Amino acid sequence: MKLRTPPLYAADFRMNPDGMRKFAVIGSSRLSVLVPPGTFTVTLTAAGQTRTETLVVRKDPNTAGSEADLQAQTTAIREAREAMNKTADLINRAEAIRAQIANVKTFVGDDAAARELQAAGDDLDKKVIAVEERLFNMTATGRGQDALRMPSQLMEKLAHLADTLQLSDFAPTDQQLEAQKLFGDQVTVAGGDLNTVVTKDLAAFNGMLQRRNIGAVIVR
Questions:
Q1: CA–CA separation, 73 and 173 (whole Å)
Q2: Structure pTM?
Q3: pLDDT tens-digit profile of 11-44?
Q4: What total number of domains does the chain contain?
């Protein structure tokens, strides 16, 4: 996640010199997925030479889980990682939009038309936040007990789910699979809501900017 705006309600927070800040909530680390038992092909390239060998990964003989259990577990963890990646993409998109809105407001002037533009920017920012705050704890500063003061959002929930899926060598429980589907549906809904803001509200804001020959907020 590339956070380009300060935490909400933290007026004293200072961004890094590059205009970014660390993702300071649960789920900020990368998710590594173990491969299930099976036969794999490993290719190594070094010093201009490439070697390919077969690698057999065997199940831990001390675990009571079956190979089918481990395969189901791996599938669930990969799906959780995919949902986390989609959530991160939405966060990055929202952050890029909000950072550009904040930047525009610093140089539009102070006449009546500029105040109208600033008000429109504030309104657009609130609409983006209404989607983004469902994706991660936007109040987290990395100081104190952020995770205890505010409820976890999608990214934190997905990270916790991925963690619990890996606690033992067994297939996911029905409850874990149900939670995974619930979170995946919420990611999809959030993506649709952000797209609506972009195609409707941001398009209108960009129209105001272009009429003043300022340019446009870029969305990727």
A1: 9
A2: 0.89
A3: 899 999 999 998 876 655 677 888 899 999 999 9
A4: 1
